[in-house]
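Supplementary notes for students who missed Thursday's class. We covered one full example, reproduced here. Read the sequence, then the structure, then the short commentary at the end.
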Amino acid sequence: MLKKVFFLAVALALLALPALAQDAPPRLNVVDYDLCGDFGGVTVTVVGDAGHNLAPYHFWADDFAAMGITIEIIEVPFADVYQVLKTEFVAGSGAFDVVTFYPSYIGDFAGNGYLLPLDDLMAREPASVWDPNMDDVLAPFRELYNKWGGQTYALTIDGDVLVMMYRADLFSNEDEKAAFMEQYGRELRPPETWSEWLEVAEFFTRDAGETLAGEVLTQPFYGTAEFGRRGFSYAWYLNRAASNGVMLFDEQMNPGINSPEAVAALQNMIDTLKFAPPDVLNFGYDELRDAFIGGQLAMVVQWTDVPKKAADPSISRIAGKVGVGRVPGFEVGGEVAHRSMMPVGRVVGVAADSDVPEAAYCVAKHIAYNTSLENVSTSLTGLDPYRMLHLTHPEAFAPLMGQENAEAYLAGLQVALADGYPDLFIPGAAQYQDALDIQVNRALAGEVSAQEALDAVAAAWNEITDRLGRDTQVAFWQQALESYRALGLVK
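Structure (token representation):
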């Protein structure tokens, strides 16, 4: 039974955790921590997007039981997280205690008072119980995705950033290297720029019956693919736009999304589709992952959990054959600028109207810090590294991919994280992103040109800004720009 009443008329799945942890990865005992004291049998309701990223609450069920906490999980469809949380927050239902959300919503949720500030809880003694060691969290997540208005409202549990993955065996094949040199007059390498991306994608696209690395293909092989489905194709576009010097807005929230540089970036993405599977516009995360680990693609940009999946021979046809590197960039001012979007990610906060805030914080902290290395180093979740702790313990990933591959994976990930570029995180972010995503998809489908699509985005963004209150939005954006500049993301 739910202890609270839901006001939202959507189907939500309620799961009560079993008494003991199930399918848990082995404890690594790297983090030195103590559990919170016994709360005496309280129930903490956790809400999050349905699927494997809620698995850690099952992994560590015995720890929660030791703290006198029963966990109830509400599973929400991936695309409905904002709507579900916003509706419950506005209604004041008190339905949730620990809320999992995508960090681009932090300005909306924290700015409107829906989340509990965590700083006082984080500072309690003893530190082994309460301190989540925020200094260990990589700066873009800590400063942009966990804070609002100088206070901490959330703890990162998933460090999403996009990286390039490629078939290292194909790029090192002598026959393929020689053929590429003959065709393009340069050495075959993982692409450094988006123009090289197109060349390499073209080169590796083959029909059934042609030869690839000495073997005759029984089905078509493609140079690459994109996240083509509505939802997050905007992020695959912004990898290109951000690296081409595109600013979403100027200081006064005038859109820069339809500049010549922005149009060139979108045209590059459109051109890529010539070297992708014919159904690429239906590709979401699952389809893009499966095409790569299923051996259909030479290279792809994806979230950083995919190399973990690719390393698992029980589900991957390319285990041991994957390289990880920087997302390509555009040459700006004589140098190649690289930007890796950080779409989605996951953070956890405590609902301001929770009636068990201390217990809820202890649950959040246990997932975000105490057990975080175990949670990100297993293929049982899609959670990605976000702490220096995670990047400096390849042995945690070695059982999955081997020590050498684990070291290479984390080294590549560290480079990608240094290129990390955040999702928009001011209030209204979901609306701005959706308006961009709609038009990117229309351009990919050939319904409009790149220029027409981005002109429509600029018009929609101005409408959103005016509807939300231009003066207020300008203030929020200028505050965000200060954070961007502090991290060296913009000048």
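Commentary. Residues 163 and 481 are 24 Å apart (CA to CA). Residues 7-11 have pLDDT under 50 and may be disordered. If anything here is unclear, bring it to office hours.
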